[in-house]
Amino acid sequence: MPYLARRVGQALVVLALAFTVTFVLLQALPGDAILIKFESPELGLSPEQIADIRASYGADVPAWQQYLHTVSGFLVGDFGYSVQYGTPVHELLAAALPETLALAGLGFLVAVLIAVSVAFLSTLAPFAWLRQALRSLPGVFVSVPVFWLGIVLIQVFSFQLKLVPVIGADPVQSLILPVLTLAIPISAPLAQVLARSIDDVALSPFVAVVRAKGAGPARVLWRDVARNALLPTITIAGVLIGELIGGAVVTETVFGRAGVGRLTEQAVANQDVAVLQAIVILAAVVFVVVNLAVDLVYPVLDPRLKRKAVAA
Amino acid sequence: MTAPLLAIEHLDVAYRAASGPRRVVHDVSFDVQPGEVVALVGESGSGKTTTSSAVLGLLPGGGLVEAGAIRLSGVDLAGWSDRRLQSVRGARIGYIPQDPVSSLNPVRPIGVQLADAFRIHGRGDRRDIRARVLDLLDRVGLDDPALRAKQYPHELSGGMRQRVLIASAVALEPELVIADEPTSALDVTVQRRILDLIDVLRREHGTAVLLVTHDLGVAAERAERVVVMQHGGIVEQGSTAAVLDAPAEAYTRQLLADAPGLGEHEFRHPRPPLYLRDASVAAAENPFALEASGLVKEFSLGRGREPFRAVDDVSFTVLRGTTHAIVGESGSGKTTTARIVARFVTPDAGEVALGGEPVRALAGAAKRVFRRRVQLVYQNPFASLDPRQSVQEIIAEPLRNFGIGDRRSRAASARQLIDRVSLPAALATQRPGELSGGQRQRVAIARALALEPELVILDEAVSALDVTVQARILELLEQLQGELGLSYLFISHDLSVVARLSHSVSVMRRGRIVEGGATEQVFGAPQHDYTRELLEAVPRRAAADARGASDRPSASSPASPASPASPARSTRKALA
Amino acid sequence: MSATAVETRPSSSAPQFATDGRRRLRGIRPGLVLAWLVIAVVLAWAVVPWLFTGQDPISGVPAEKLQAPSLAHLFGTDAIGRDLFTRVVYGAVHSLSGALVAVTVGLVVGTLLGVLAGSLGGVVDAIVMRIVDVLLSIPGLLLALSIIILLGFGTVNAAIAVGVGSIAAFARLSRSEVVRVRQSDYVEAAFGSGARLHTVLFRHVLPNSLTAVIGLAALQFGAAILAISTLGFLGYGAPPPTPEWGLLIAEGRNYVATSWWLTVLPGLVVVAVVLSANRISHALGRNR
Question: What is the ipTM of this complex?
Answer without folding.
Answer: 0.83
